[in-house]
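Recap from last week: sequence in, structure out.
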Amino acid sequence: MLLQNFQRGIAHLMKIAIISDTHNLLRPQAIAALQDCEQIIHAGDIGNAEILAQLVAIAPVHVVRGNNDLKSAWAADIPDVLTLDLHGWQTLLVHDIADVPANLAPDTRLVITGHSHKPCIEWRGERLYINPGSAGPRRFKLPVTLVLMDIGKLMDIGKDLIEPRLVHLLDSEA
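Predicted structure tokens:
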């Protein structure tokens, strides 16, 4: 693993969880996977306020609404799009990849989406796109997943380090 090779040269390593499409279901396996995370990102289709309360009890949460949250009164103050800085990575968070602007800000290095329930970790040029898949009810034959991500900076060369990994929540998928 890349991080093991550079552990001594990392100034600070931040562990971030990325979850999406819980649809009223926060599985015990997801709760266990989120422990020790410094931040949690939820890419929408939360389901209810209780899901957010459970996540906030674990770590600070950044969240956007999904299409299934739009008409819910409890989600009225949750944004549809969020830009944030994740340990030096300018990040765009939006539920549906179709809503990602064609002309992203040049400093946007990370794009996080949900909606499709299809997990994806993909570099497109200098930009990393992550869809953690769905951590909620299974849809079709798609896996039940989330993403855990380590972000740091290598002190000796000043290089950013990002290592996302897909976590399968059901034993039958591991």
